[in-house]
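Page 37, continued from 36.
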């Protein structure tokens, strides 16, 4: 399986898993209790294993005083993304976190870091603010950006951050 095919499969699996978990939200609190969390944990572990088996790239995101490092990062360029809205996409999963980096004509530059093990009570959530901060030089990707803490319901907490990544 090529990196582009694996990237599309991982993205589809993640989207499907998220949709299934979100559709399980609501209803009887007792029923929604632990089952979605177990599924989220299993999904995160499976995606992390698949990316690590594909090997290749790496990524490090530092926001404020916290640093998040990922091995097994996968990248897609231009038509490999499978979506004309994106010229570039990077995905990396590790330790229950997912790093997503995207750039394209429709949505501009975007970096997110999300806790994918606990959607109801995420321990970490960062989203870049602004556009035009992503630099792609061959297989090297870097950025300096402002990040909003998405675990803060007021979305008022901001930190400076940097991204350094290498695509396979």
């Amino acid at each position: 399986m090529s990196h582009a095919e694996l990237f599309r499969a991982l993205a589809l699996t993640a989207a499907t898993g998220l949709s299934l978990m979100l559709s399980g939200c609501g209803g009887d609190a007792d029923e929604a209790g632990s089952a979605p969390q177990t599924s989220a944990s299993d999904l995160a572990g499976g995606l992390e294993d698949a990316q690590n088996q594909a090997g290749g790239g790496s990524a490090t995101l530092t926001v404020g005083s916290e640093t998040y490092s990922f091995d097994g990062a996968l990248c897609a360029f231009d038509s490999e993304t499978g979506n004309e809205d994106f010229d570039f996409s990077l995905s990396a999963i590790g330790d229950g976190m997912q790093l997503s980096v995207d750039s394209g004509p429709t949505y501009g530059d975007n970096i997110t870091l999300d806790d994918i093990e606990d959607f109801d009570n995420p321990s970490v959530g960062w989203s870049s603010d602004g556009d035009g901060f992503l630099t792609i030089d061959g297989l090297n990707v870097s950025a300096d950006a402002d990040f909003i803490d998405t675990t803060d319901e007021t979305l008022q907490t901001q930190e400076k951050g940097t991204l350094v990544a290498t695509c396979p």
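DSSP finds three helices and nine strands in the chain. Flag for discussion at group meeting. The two ends are 14 Å apart (CA to CA).
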